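Here is one chain, start to finish.
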Amino acid sequence: MKRMGMTVCYFLILSEIVFLLDIGGELWAVTPRVEVEEDILTYRSPDNGSGPLWCYGAPVMARDGERVFLSINETGEDIPPLCNTRWRLFERTTSGWTLHAAADSFREREPCPLALLSNQSLFLSINPSTQPAGVQYGPCDPQLLRFSCSSPQDPPASIHPAWSEETYFTDHSYRGIAADSDANQLLALNIHAKTGDQFWCLRDDAGKWIANGKIAFPIRSCYPQVALRRRAGYVMAIGDIVEPIEEWRVYKKEKTGREWDYVFRRLFFCWSPDLAKTNFGEPIEIETVDATAGHISNLDLWLANDGAAYLLYLKSPVQNTLMRDRFFPDRKMTTSLECAVVKDGTIEKKFTITCGGEGLSTPQPHYARFHATPDGRLYAVTFVSGVDRSGTAFQENQIQQILPAIGKPVAISFKDPFRSFFTATERGGSKPSDLLDLYGIGSQGNTLRYARVRLVNGIDR
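Its structure:
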């Protein structure tokens, strides 16, 4: 009986442990240890409507084991916009940052996305202008440059995607790229400058462009997050159009004096189960704040093992106090970090990760990215602001578990928090990792920074 009692006791203890872990990891905390936090370089604004972080939907950083590759554009001196920057390929090793390659001339408007494959090929998506310097909204020649990770300083091979007919690509390309690293396949996107359709091409592991087509969103949609897995394609994009409500457009121009008035209120998603066989399906609307002059920022896209797509975005019911005070005086100014889960083209669920703003005591989210670890956990890495219990204002980066269940946010102890940033994402060919890489800007808006954070797991007692 004594032995049986001990067996029962051990079983109960084991069951309790399993239960604590199985309830979603709410008691399972992550400890972020900052190993590297450094400035890379300062940049000069190109004054062309773009900037180093402009292509926030597409990856520009990739981790390959202990190596980190980064695409950073550079503004040319005395070169008129719009195409007055050039691409550069950097690598960080134990000895610091090394510039491996750069374009011979300044022919780009936008940053150049980066994708990594398991065969050690590194692809840079470029979009050089074909026109003389100073020509605006002119034709461009989108292509991929293939580098070898073993010798990234060697001249790259130039590869032209096999787009479908009737394309019209300019310096406003809103390019997307995705890597299925395990399968050594790529998916490239570029927008038709007149129709707003997103054209796509699929490249197989033999280097052949085996399928192409286009996505017709209900309205022009830009800054796409793109993912590819076993030839299944996933795209999230945000509506990007001139203010459609005349009364609101007139009022904003009267108060601000600005002609430029694009709004971002409708979030879309589309997918294909096999791009080699079928085009993307009809886009579905994930979220809209059209009725209240709100604002949505599409942030990130992550694929679960079962093919479910997790969509991360910010939602503000009213964009700013100017519009709130005039048209929606009873609304609170809030911003929430949202997640939608879509599987087989159907929205399975949506949930709010956090929300802050007027009347709320929780910190307000301003930016976020996903990060997955090898043990199957998914985190949101955020930039938030708030007021602590002593009444002191603060800004910080946090990391918060999303899967297997929502956990508590944990502060990352940066000296200078990252306000906007990229991560080494699976969409760009990086593997899930206990190392979190961030590239972006902090308090000094013209200084590009990098950080490496080691994520250490443990039970939060």
